């Protein structure tokens, strides 16, 4: 996989299942093959998730607890032992005070001293909460002395990502950890069950998956100085 050894990895995402789609295979390799400590700071419980089932399996009142348990199971699937649920409300991160969010990330960095932080790529994360999270992470790192900064990897999902940024800097072959990624995705069953059923059918039928996010995870190396406020 040619992954660089890391002292400590900090993942910062706003919603449960962001990590399963973005980094589950890479993180499973770090935790299970390289014994790297990983902290996952998840800002919300995704309580405004669209999928309540048909017929409904949850209500707006019961969904947060369902997604909390799913998040714990996903972290276990990836080998993450330090899961932080930070208690923000879903779909409100974009409205939080920017300085408050930066200070939160600064506190995590000061406590954990990560050598690598993984979040979304600013400007190419699609969802407003994703963008707000990425801005806070990048600004917190930008304020640090250059010699003390952790490296930042950004995941991107916008359709024009490659057009405007070129190919990702880091492409990780996660086929060895595919089972772990699938388990992380399956853990978020309230949101991923139907998608995973279709994916599993394709796998069982031997359909080609070479293009799939089940085989590779891609990251851009973020230069915080490009995002001066």
Helix tally equals 8
Order of helices and strands: EHHEHEHEHEHEHHE
CATH class: Alpha Beta
Q: Strand share of the residues?
A: 15-25%
CATH topology: Rossmann fold
* Approximate shape: globular
Radius of gyration: 17 Å
Describe this structure in words.
The chain is α/β, with parallel strands linked by helices. The protein has a single domain, classed as Rossmann fold. It contains 8 helices and 7 strands. The protein has a 7-stranded mixed sheet, sandwiched between helices. Helix 3 (63-78) links the parallel strand 2 and strand 3. The mean pLDDT is 90.
Summarize this structure briefly.
The protein has 229 residues and is α/β, with parallel strands linked by helices. It has eight helices and seven strands; from the N terminus they run E-H-H-E-H-E-H-E-H-E-H-E-H-H-E.
Q: What is the secondary structure topology, with strand pairs?
A:
Layout: E1 9-13, H1 18-22, H2 24-33, E2 38-44, H3 63-78, E3 82-88, H4 98-112, E4 116-120, H5 128-142, E5 151-155, H6 161-165, E6 170-173, H7 178-187, H8 189-204, E7 216-221
Pick out its properties.
229 residues; alpha/beta; Rossmann fold
